[in-house]
Write a structure and sequence with these properties.
Layout: E1 2-6, E2 10-14, E3 28-32, H1 34-45, E4 48-52, E5 54-55, H2 59-70, E6 79-80, E7 87-91, E8 100-104, H3 120-123, E9 129-133, H4 135-138, H5 141-156, E10 160-164, H6 174-185, E11 190-193, H7 195-202, H8 218-232, E12 236-244, E13 249-258, E14 263-266, E15 270-273, H9 280-293, H10 298-312, H11 324-331
Parallel strand pairs: 1-4, 1-9, 2-7, 5-6, 9-10, 10-11, 11-12
Antiparallel strand pairs: 2-3, 7-8, 12-13, 13-14, 13-15
Helix pairs in contact: 1-9, 9-10, 10-11
């Protein structure tokens, strides 16, 4: 099984532990973000994964590429162009202090890219699955067009297409996102997101859900999932569900709608003591993709997705560095955290 993902990889700068930005003079570096996180996770799960992006042809861009290769991700179709790699600063929250992300990604290599270097017919040769998120088309008008070209070509080539809605208010407005994402969704088989994404981008509300109060309306979620599937013709729609008790403690689960069977399935809920929540949604998406393309039933696929997202949030950094057996072990009910000897 070969999965291709397309998007931006960035340089993350973070202070140690729970220090605020610049409380100490040092910042730790790592490469990560969205579709790159998915490619790394799927490679760690045992899939053949390729990441397509644009990078500056300098030491920083080459280092980002080497980091992907370190985890077995194929990088043959990366385009080298532009002047800079996007950067983001991430400060982990604790207790009642929320986490904070500050972007410095304007005019990055991928945001400045034009469609011509991306030969999608060649890129998709031998591939089975294509993954993209709503972050990528938000970066520039050119990338919005490239994203539509990519999903169109993927569908034409017979690939399964998944899209994580991943709305980011710091990148574009809901008014600008809606027509672009609506066009992309015409080609999507597996839609991934959460209740906020669906409501903000498509106006599809999850009942009386209030994430700021940790209240989830299960019936509202079910209606939202079904409405997304019916509106866009998706075969599968899955949401991660997060109850934010505080920045340190979250309830985490998933819910999925199988359009063929017209059935909704929910995962168990994990009460997580958060180590680093950034990347949890990407791990959720990775677990779901892995399960579905390995013909795991939707009922068990959502357990796999929730378990992958849970485990990722126990690690520092964005990348999900677990093997698939770790994920399946947790999904199968081994959640005690006892030492394995």
């Amino acid at each position: 099984m070969k999965v291709v993902s397309f998007g931006e990889i960035m340089l993350r700068l973070s202070p140690d532990g729970y220090y605020k930005l610049f409380q100490k003079p040092e910042l730790n570096t790592s490469f990560c973000v969205a579709e790159a996180n998915v490619a790394v996770a799927l490679s760690n799960f045992g899939d053949e994964a390729e990441f397509v992006t644009a990078l500056p042809d300098n030491d920083i861009g080459r280092a980002a590429c080497r980091e992907l290769m370190r985890y077995g991700v194929k990088t043959d179709n990366i385009v080298y162009t532009g002047d800079r790699l996007g950067i983001f600063f991430a400060e982990k929250g604790a207790s009642q202090r929320p986490s904070k992300v500050i972007y410095d990604r304007k005019n990055s290599a991928i945001a400045s890219a034009d469609p011509s270097p991306f030969n999608w017919e060649k890129i998709f040769d031998g591939a089975d699955w294509f993954h993209i998120t709503g972050i990528t088309p938000a970066l520039s008008d050119s990338l919005a067009k490239i994203s539509v070209d990519a999903v169109t070509a993927a569908k034409k080539a017979g690939l399964t297409v998944s899209c994580d809605i991943n709305y980011r208010s710091k990148l574009w407005s809901a008014e600008k996102a809606r027509p672009v994402m609506t066009e992309i969704m015409k080609y999507v088989d597996v839609c991934i997101g959460n209740e906020e994404d669906a409501e903000i981008v498509f106006g599809i509300k999850a009942g009386a859900t209030d994430v700021t109060k940790g209240q989830l309306d299960t019936d509202g979620y079910k209606k939202s999932l079904q409405t997304v599937a019916e509106t866009f013709g998706c075969k599968i729609v899955a949401y991660s569900q997060r109850k934010s008790y505080s920045a340190s403690d979250n309830g985490w689960s998933g819910i999925i709608y199988d359009d063929e069977k017209k059935q909704v399935y929910t995962s168990v809920q994990y009460d997580i003591r958060i180590t680093d929540r950034i990347g949890g949604g990407d791990a959720f998406a990775s677990g779901l993709i892995y399960a579905l393309h390995n013909n795991i039933s939707p009922a068990n696929a959502i357990e796999t997705a929730a378990a992958a997202g849970c485990l990722d949030q126990t690690l520092e950094g964005d990348f999900c560095l677990f093997g698939i057996n770790d994920v399946l072990d947790l999904a199968g009910g081994n959640s005690s955290g006892r030492v394995k000897r």
